[in-house]
């Protein structure tokens, strides 16, 4: 494996781990705390969090992770006969599935909450389930990429 390829795998694993940690922290700490607030206050707080998430500090790893995952797939998918490449490819796929889930489910719910704070109870239920899935997908991505790198 070339140094550039190894760097791309490590970068994808690290950013997947970071994203997984953010999503899981939301599931286990932030959403339960918001749920203790009155619905209008919870919706307002979540809307502020969503605005803050659309800044460089979060968007950079959020956007670079799937780009790096595609590079990992392009490099290792043609050589799938090697066991390590199974782990690397699956880790990259999990990162991409997390992005698809975000764009297909979480972002539309964020937009809906921004225009209709009254939807908070439905938002919390639907958004938190997919957020937990994103956290688990990204964490699994980080683990699989690391296992593939070590094999």
Brief overview, please?
This protein is an all-alpha fold and 151 residues long. It has helices spanning 3-35, 39-53, 56-76, 83-115, 120-150. This is Membrane protein.
Write the layout of secondary structure elements.
Elements: H1 3-35, H2 39-53, H3 56-76, H4 83-115, H5 120-150
Transmembrane segments: 6-31, 58-80, 86-104
Organism: Arthrobacter russicus
Keywords: Membrane, Transmembrane, Transmembrane helix
Describe the model.
This protein is mainly alpha-helical and 151 residues long. It has one domain (3-150). Helices cover 88% and strands 0% of the residues. It has 5 helices and no strands. The chain has helices at residues 3-35, 39-53, 56-76, 83-115, 120-150. Helix 1 (3-35) packs parallel to helix 4. The protein is elongated. The chain starts with a helix and ends with a helix. The mean pLDDT is 94. This is Membrane protein. It comes from Arthrobacter russicus. The chain crosses the membrane at residues 6-31, 58-80, 86-104.
């Amino acid at each position: 494996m070339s140094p550039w390829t190894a760097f791309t795998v490590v970068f994808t694993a690290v950013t997947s781990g970071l994203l997984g940690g953010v999503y899981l922290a939301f599931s286990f700490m932030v959403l339960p705390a918001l749920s203790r607030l009155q619905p209008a206050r919870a919706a307002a707080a979540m809307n502020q969090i969503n605005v803050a998430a659309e800044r460089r500090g979060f968007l950079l790893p959020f956007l670079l992770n799937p780009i790096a995952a595609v590079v990992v797939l392009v490099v290792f998918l043609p050589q799938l006969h090697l066991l390590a490449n199974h782990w690397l490819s699956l880790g990259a796929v999990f990162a991409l599935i997390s992005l698809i889930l975000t764009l297909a489910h979480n972002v539309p719910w964020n937009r809906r909450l921004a225009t209709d704070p009254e939807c908070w109870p439905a938002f919390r239920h639907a958004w938190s389930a997919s957020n937990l899935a994103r956290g688990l997908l990204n964490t699994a991505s980080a683990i699989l990429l690391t296992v593939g790198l070590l094999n």
